[in-house]
Specification:
The chain is mostly helical. The chain contains 4 helices and 3 strands.
């Protein structure tokens, strides 16, 4: 299980990629098929994902910026929550 709730990026070339962590997000950002490869939001997401992977940005912030950039381009397909994922989220909330 990745660090974040799984989502699928549906690229314009018909390919899809499941993203669950920053490494996945980085690989997705490097792929062709984005609706607008040069959008400021995508460039900002790429910078923050790289920064987070090097410890200069909070991973959650980088992932949320990545998600917002992908959503703005209409490329996100949410994955239905599994029982395990729901249990995991519940355990984290209860531990706080």
């Amino acid at each position: 299980m990745g660090m974040f709730r799984p989502l699928v990026i549906a690229f314009r070339n018909g390919k899809e990629m499941t993203v669950t962590n920053l490494a996945d997000a980085s690989r997705a950002l490097d792929r062709l098929g984005w609706a607008d490869d040069d959008s400021p939001e995508l460039m900002h997401a790429a910078k923050l994902v790289a920064d987070a992977m090097e410890g200069r940005c909070a991973p959650r912030i980088a992932f949320e910026v990545f998600l917002a950039a992908a959503r703005k381009q209409g490329m996100v397909r949410e994955v239905e929550r599994s029982v395990a994922w729901t249990d995991f989220e519940s355990a984290i909330r209860n531990a706080s």
